[in-house]
Amino acid sequence: MKKLQELPAWQSLWDHFATAKDVHMRELFEQDPQRAERYWLEVGGLKLDYSKNRITDETLKGLIELAKEAGVQERKKAMFAGKKINETENRAVLHVALRNRTNSPIEVDGEDVMPKVNNVLERMGKFAHAVRNGDWLGYTNQVITDVVNIGIGGSDLGPLMMCSALKTFGHPRMRMHFVSNVDGAQLRDTLEKVHPETTLFIIASKTFTTQETLTNANTARQWFLREGSEEDIAKHFVAVSTNKKAVAEFGIDTNHMFEFWDWVGGRYSLWSAIGLPIMLYLGEENFIEMLNGAHLMDQHFYNAPLEQNMPVLLAMIGIWYINYFGGGSHIIAPYDQHLHRLPKFIQQLDMESNGKQVTMDGSPVEHETGPIIWGETGINGQHAFFQLLHQGTHVTPIDLIASLEKRSNLPGHHEILLSNVFAQAEAFMRGKTPDEVREELRAQGMDEAHIEALVPHKTFSGNRPSNLILLNKVNPRNMGSLIALYEHKVFVQGIIWGINSFDQWGVELGKQLAKTILAELNGTVAPQKHDSSTEHLVKLYRRTNCEVDGTCDIFLEEDKKKV
Are residues 183 and 202 in the same domain? Predict the structure, then answer.
């Protein structure tokens, strides 16, 4: 496989960049009255306006050619066919199978995975129905009112985001809680809100060995046993895992263990049994609608020409900024309070996937890869970090996401919200020239000296890129499409960079070191060899807590030597 720098389109784009980088979007809109209509795409209930980007037809032509030369078409087909494109872990990548609503065969190692997918989905549906309609009762024969999902990373962020986004579709009796932080404060605060006899715990861990998740799960188990019995655990704890032995040892009935597979990556897993909290909250029909929406985007991604392919266009425009303009970050700004968890979800999806420094063959990359993803609800962002976007020195693309449909019956609120979305996109693009500033200040009656002093401060360069993604409404189908859109965007960018978007070895080192340091902090092993800073920190903790542990005598000799 050729390196990115060896592809003809890569160099051609650099030649184009030399002349295109200083072109202002104001000029592009003035020269092309049809620009907004031409740089517009609709897929299902999603609409994309990508006209406010620093691109021309020539730019897009070059970017699409780069996608072709990098093998986007071939790599895409390989993923959908169940090929083991996650080469470092020798795994297929088949989150698309989880929402394969046509049920067409998808094979891994010669086995059609769809029967297993459908079986788990059916079991999830029956369980969710039983809990929601009151057939599933706790140990005191009361209905379940609270669901506590204990997981971390992809086992937490996806379900939490979807349950927040689709709150208006949630069961009126069900209260959803999500615990991921091993800091006991989060679990303690959650347990203070719920009652053992009406609470269902979902322990989400593929291996059922994840340290943070199992620590929280065991603490929740001990809390439950203060009032319930060992045999009652089966009525209040279920598992999303593949480790039957560990699940059974915990006390969970393995009939209430919902499995998923090694070809489901954590950050791509909300469509699987990891989505059980979503189904419990929204119901089976709405969960299926979410899958339908994702499948719609899958079909579009697979079949649409690259030039009219929404994930491909978003990906390649992102490549333009990251690799040519040097834009090292990207903002997600949803203008919808229920989507306030979306930036964090996209953050993991993108940064854990494409935060890589070597290519598929193990050689160092010679270009930038994944950007820093950050964001906040747009309205709050306007009064926090938008100043940097308007007048800072960075090229920072932003995705503005909003719903066309009103989400509340509060008069005037949605119009104010959308007016800000549209205005910010226009302001990013247009900016404000010095002459426009002067005209504005003169109209206010300001003297010329004061005007000239203020002109540089009130001038906006504009030419700041944005994508506007509009949902017809925030519902399960459109949310499914939206998340699938970002999944495929991330995948395409990984192809361009020649990296593996589906492993995450960088997460492992810290975990490995933490095991050793934990034993030192607990006093179960003698101090180990570290750098001087880490050794100092370990000793500081031990000395601070030695009275509680009854181990202060170990420091006496050390203190005597210092004296």
Answer: yes
